[in-house]
Amino acid sequence: PAAEMTRPADAFLRYDLPDSLKEHRGALLAVGMGLILTDRHTIRLFDSHREGSDRHVDRLYRTVNFLADGATLAVGLGGLWAASRGETRDTAALALTALGNATVATTLVKGLVGKQRPDESGEPHYRGPSLVFSSFPSGHTAAATSVAHVLAVRHPRQKALWYGFAAAVAVSRVSASKHWLSDTFWGAGLG
Fold first, then answer.
1. Which tens digit of pLDDT belongs to each residue from 15-63?
2. In terms of Cα–Cα distance, which of 105, 50, 96 is closest to 75?
3. What is the per-residue burial (b if ≥16 Cβ within 10 Å, else e) of 112-135?
């Protein structure tokens, strides 16, 4: 995969599921569907743990959410691209391309699905095409995962760090009642 990620222009709108995941497609689909069916129960579990949470954990979650916001990532990666040369510049361009793809995909799906956020209704209601209800899938998680994947391929020795950050984003979105667990799972898949 690293050799395929050398030309940012060629990467735009081209995605192939990694071989390691291809053989598990059915299982991943089943897990994703299962999470949708258990959204109501998992959000209650997160809510019960949040009531006694530490303010430092809340501050960490807010920071992680800020860093994983698409605009923040775009500005940071754009600045890195503008200020660098060579492999670092190519990596920034690839990450920007991946972020752009994830943003387009999540925006389209959000508009088509129209799922209410946990803090809007307390129930995972699907309203159909809507510009108002935008829970499914998690854009923050998709953005973080798309950038994490590029960085993990380009810098494999730090892949635990990159994917760990993406996982922290997913947990923080559910913990803040901005997304259902299934939203973050499918957001990671789109990322």
1. 555 666 666 677 777 777 777 777 777 777 776 666 556 777 778 778 8
2. 96
3. ebbbbbbeeeeebeeeeeeeebbb
